[in-house]
């Protein structure tokens, strides 16, 4: 058996990200899912690019602020205590708009955790 208690505020943010991202999976001993905590100031993006996954399902639980997600079908919004889910093969781009009044704080979970499962999406093609 294995148990882990992880204080997310004590994890150093990942470098070279468009917002503050703390990777929690490894410290939590998880191998079958990816879990991250994102804090995006107004004008910041969560992912590195507009993208989709072949197999991974994603869930974004908004702790505070409002998460905006661009999709080919239109923009979505999720406020505090809201869960937004994304199925495989569904392009998405999560961000906090420039004119937002506060940061957005989100816990993101993806499963299964598969390397090479992410693909850039070009909405113009």
TrEMBL record:
UniProt feature coiled coil, ranges: none
One MF term in the entry's GO annotations: metal ion binding
InterPro entries: Cupin_2, GPI/OXD, RmlC-like_jellyroll, RmlC_Cupin_sf
Keywords: Metal-binding
Ranges for domain Cupin type-2: 38-100
Domain of life: Archaea
Region annotated Disordered, chain positions: 1-23
Protein name in UniProt: Cupin domain-containing protein
Organism: Haloplanus rubicundus
């Amino acid at each position: 058996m294995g148990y882990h208690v992880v204080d997310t505020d004590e994890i150093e943010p990942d470098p070279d990200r468009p917002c503050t991202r703390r990777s929690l999976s490894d410290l939590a001993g998880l191998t079958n899912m990816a879990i991250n905590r994102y804090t995006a100031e107004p004008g910041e993006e969560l992912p590195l690019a507009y993208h989709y996954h072949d197999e991974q399902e994603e869930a974004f639980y908004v702790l505070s602020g409002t998460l905006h997600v661009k999709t080919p079908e239109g923009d979505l919004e999720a406020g505090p205590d809201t869960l937004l889910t994304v199925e495989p093969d569904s392009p998405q781009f999560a961000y906090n708009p420039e004119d937002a009044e506060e940061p957005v704080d989100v816990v993101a979970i993806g499963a299964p955790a598969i390397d090479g499962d992410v693909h850039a999406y070009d909405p113009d093609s």
